[in-house]
Fold this sequence. Notes:
Elements: E1 2-6, H1 12-15, E2 22-25, E3 33-36, E4 52-55, H2 65-71, E5 74-76, H3 83-98, H4 101-109, H5 117-124, E6 137-141, H6 145-156, E7 160-164, H7 170-175, E8 181-182, H8 186-192, E9 195-198, H9 212-217, E10 222-226, H10 235-243, E11 247-252, E12 265-267, H11 276-296, E13 316-323, H12 328-338, E14 345-351, E15 354-361, H13 367-375, E16 379-386
Parallel strand pairs: 1-2, 1-3, 3-4, 4-5, 6-7, 6-9, 7-8, 9-10, 10-11, 11-12
Antiparallel strand pairs: 13-15, 13-16, 14-15
Helix pairs in contact: 3-6
The structure holds 1,4-dihydronicotinamide adenine dinucleotide and 2-oxo-3-(phosphonooxy)propanoic acid.
1,4-dihydronicotinamide adenine dinucleotide is lined by residues 57-59, 79, 82-83, 86, 141-147, 164-169, 172, 199-202, 206, 227-229, 253, 270, 272-273.
Amino acid sequence: xxxxxxxxxxxxxxxxxxxxxxxxxxxxxxxxxxxxxxxxxxxxxxxxxxxxxxxxxxxxxxxxxxxxxxxxxxxxxxxxxxxxxxxxxxxxxxxxxxxxxxxxxxxxxxxxxxxxxxxxxxxxxxxxxxxxxxxxxxxxxxxxxxxxxxxxxxxxxxxxxxxxxxxxxxxxxxxxxxxxxxxxxxxxxxxxxxxxxxxxxxxxxxxxxxxxxxxxxxxxxxxxxxxxxxxxxxxxxxxxxxxxxxxxxxxxxxxxxxxxxxxxxxxxxxxxxxxxxxxxxxxxxxxxxxxxxxxxxxxxxxxxxxxxxxxxxxxxxxxxxxxxxxxxxxxxxxxxxxxxxxxxxxxxxxxxxxxxxxxxxxxxxxxxxxxxxxxxxxxxxxxxxxxx
Length: 388
Ligand SMILES: NC(=O)C1=CN([C@@H]2O[C@H](COP(=O)(O)OP(=O)(O)OC[C@H]3O[C@@H](n4cnc5c(N)ncnc54)[C@H](O)[C@@H]3O)[C@@H](O)[C@H]2O)C=CC1
Ligand SMILES: O=C(O)C(=O)COP(=O)(O)O
């Protein structure tokens, strides 16, 4: 029986993927795995039994990844599972940033008691003129699952698109429309784009990514969309640039006290992934990742350990998380040989400071042997999964 702790609301369609061997709820203790969306785990007390955290979504800045790695907790996310939902909201924001839709709706609402409302509305419409997006240039910073979707959709809407991502992945590069232009520097994005949308993760390197230096280079009246994370933008610098008209409109999915009620700033309550489709997709993917890891030790879509996905070919599988240092495998192999244990299959992959090893055997691996592996230098954790 596996215990799963739920933080945030995880879609039932996803939870239904668990079979009778799983018990899940929000009060779970001694959990084997956590399913989470945006709840912060930075102050969370990770129990000894915790093996995996699956983020039903993309951004993992709510999870202390280094601490998890040190403890041998594998962190997963669900790449691309909510990308379409975010893309659709970004497209909406693109229109909101261009045509004065929100402002005009607010104004019409004030005309409730006006008996000549139709005439008044017609008369007032000239205050809400806004440009078309067709033919304008959109700069997309970050060409991952969301950025590529946004870029391709904007091209279909007749925009010119410039994309910037020095670390673009192979799949994203294949998926990106051939009509998107490759910007080789951020300067090019800042100086040439009428609209800029940012789709990169929040981490120690990207905090305050859009700051005074960036704003200073941008076109007057540029429209900026932030559906990635609030802290990618330096709000102090932003407010100065909205006030002086350099930034014509800022639309963000992330609230902050200083941004509320400001002219030319529109804030949504983190709605990017809040569609039934995306909530189901993310939950299903996250649950499957957890099941595969708990039952077979296979790692798919981890953000802190290498992906390793091996079919089970034997009764016993040892899953070893270790520091990426010499001699680990040699010591384990020797221990196996000393105890006359035969290795059917062995896979070792590393990622940064850590590595993951799967050993399949048909022999019984006694607890004292597991403990000897566990106590060796550089070993973070050892798990034996036996399938009858
Ligand atoms: N508003 C919402 O509800 C949602 C927000 N997000 C946010 O959007 C972010 C992006 O999501 P996905 O596209 O699914 O992730 P992704 O991992 O597919 O794409 C991120 C892209 O950013 C690029 N990148 C990283 N650092 C960069 C830099 N310094 N300059 C340029 N490019 C850089 C990477 O190479 C990658 O291609 C997430 O990390 C999350 O914070 C994601 C989903 C929903
Ligand atoms: O996937 C992401 O990174 C998101 O920001 C979505 O967050 P949510 O799952 O809606 O709390």
